[in-house]
Specification:
- By secondary structure, the protein is an alpha/beta fold.
- The chain has one domain: Rossmann fold (3-Layer(aba) Sandwich), CATH 3.40.50.1360.
- The chain is built from seven helices and ten strands.
- It has a seven-stranded parallel beta sheet with strand order 1-10-9-6-2-3-5, with helices on one face.
- Helix 1 crosses helix 2.
- The chain is globular.
- The protein starts with a strand and ends in a 9-residue tail after the last strand.
């Protein structure tokens, strides 16, 4: 995993988007298409703003997303589908496909099976992601399952994760934050050719330290990225402040 520290969160987002866009264009040039993973949350605002302005033939790009709350409709302000439709899908306009995670599906097992079938046999060219305040990767909270092979799984959200979602203003009360989610698994994320992580803000500093400087452990899920040679962690001075 490579580290890049930028002077501002805006520069962080721009540089992360540029790195990911170059990989997307390289995949399109090599095979005529690209498959990407896009993430959500406050950490992705600047990166997505820059990414939608990059010179990419989006008609050749299929996008999946990392996770979605169980039971939350796409119309809810915290829905990751709604977030990505507004900040990404609608703005690029001609995306080849956007494979949504239907967290409010009546048949949850069937929805997970559908998603897993969509990714079966595919190679993800670029995974855009962040790191949670509890060092989670996607919604794989500690202790994360590093062994499960399924691309998407149903997970329980721990108290720290739910507090972060409330603290970022996505929910009116902590009780309103769902307790489960459909998440891309750790192994599936690690299969991506390139992983571009955007992690600004002081509140992520401890998680960054854990992910970068502590031994790889399910207690610090994002620490697994130390083993990915194609991962780049983009930081600002605040999020890098606890690195030795």
């Amino acid at each position: 995993m490579k580290l890049k520290i930028h002077s501002t969160s805006e520069e962080l987002g721009r540089r992360a988007a540029e790195e990911g866009a170059a990989e997307i264009n390289q995949a399109i040039e090599a095979s005529g298409r690209a498959i990407i993973i896009v993430a959500t949350g406050a950490s992705q605002f600047a990166m997505l703003e820059a990414l939608v302005g990059c010179d990419i033939d989006w008609s050749r790009v299929t996008a999946f997303h990392l996770d979605e709350y169980v039971g939350l409709p796409a119309t809810h302000k915290a829905s990751f589908r709604g977030y990505l439709r507004t900040r990404f899908v609608e703005r690029v306009g001609n995306l080849k496909a956007f494979v949504e995670v239907g967290g409010d599906a009546a048949d949850l097992e069937g929805e997970v099976a559908r998603l897993n079938a969509c990714l079966a046999g595919e190679t993800v060219d670029v995974c855009f992601a962040g790191i949670g305040e509890n060092c989670h990767l996607a919604f794989n909270d500690p202790p994360a399952d590093f062994a499960v092979e399924d691309p998407y799984i149903v997970v329980d959200l721990d108290a720290a994760c739910r507090q972060q979602q409330f603290g970022e203003g996505w929910f009116d009360t902590i009780e309103a934050v769902p307790q489960r989610a459909i998440s891309m698994s750790i192994r599936q994320i690690m299969k991506s050719r390139k992983i571009v992580l955007s992690v600004p803000d002081q509140r992520k500093a401890l998680a960054v330290h854990q992910a970068v400087q502590l031994p790889v452990s399910p207690l610090y899920p994002a620490s697994i990225l130390q083993q990915h040679r194609g991962a780049t962690l983009h930081l600002d001075p605040a999020s890098a402040s606890l690195l030795e």
